[in-house]
Amino acid sequence: MAERIKVDLVDDIDGSPAKHTVTFALDGVTYEIDLNEGHERQLRTVLNRYIKAARSPKSEKSRTSKQQEREEERVREENKQLTEQIRGAAQRTRDRLKAEQVDAPSEPVRPAEPERADAPEPVVLNGGGEETEPEQVPAVSLPLFSSAVD
User: Which of 146, 142, 124 minimizes the C-alpha distance to 133?
Assistant: First the structure.
């Protein structure tokens, strides 16, 4: 199915048919306005006086881009150093785990359980108001993650 869309420009000043869309900027904000030929001429005439007296903004791209390049290079270097530190720590961890496995091959490697403070055991009351033993909750071990490649 074919579709045809017709766009009619309407002068934003008086609602008459417009011929042009004029784009201009003021204080860093860009505007667009649809104008008929008369209003376009008036706008250009008014702005022409100011355009002739104005100057083009200085291009700061070269300074900004060099500053950005230096900053990006510094960040890359910091990231490279951090990556090397992480790889070194991962290698030391792998070496330590391998050494522990060689020393005690029959024992599975388990993470150390957190030590409990000397706190009294909680008292659990059943429905009849009698004391019961608190349930033993199994410890959860977290997987070991490493970003280093073997």
Answer: 124
138 residue type, one letter? P
Closest to 23 measured CA to CA, from 37, 39, 34: 34
Amino acid letter, residue 35: L
40 and 22 Cβ atoms separated by less than 8 Å: yes
Sign of CA dihedral 112, 118, 119, 122: positive
Q: What is the CA radius of gyration of the chain?
A: 37
Which sign does the torsion angle of CA 102, 108, 109, 115 carry?
A: negative
- The residues, ordered by sequence, that sit 6+ positions from 141 with a Cβ below 8 Å of its Cβ are 110, 111
Separation CA 143–CA 147 (nearest Å): 13
pLDDT tens, residue by residue, 66-115: 888 899 999 999 999 999 999 999 999 999 998 888 877 565 556 666 55
Exposure string over 15-29, b if 16+ CB within 10 A, otherwise e: eeebebebeeeeeee
- Please tell me whether the overall predicted TM-score, pTM, comes out greater than 0.90 for this model: no
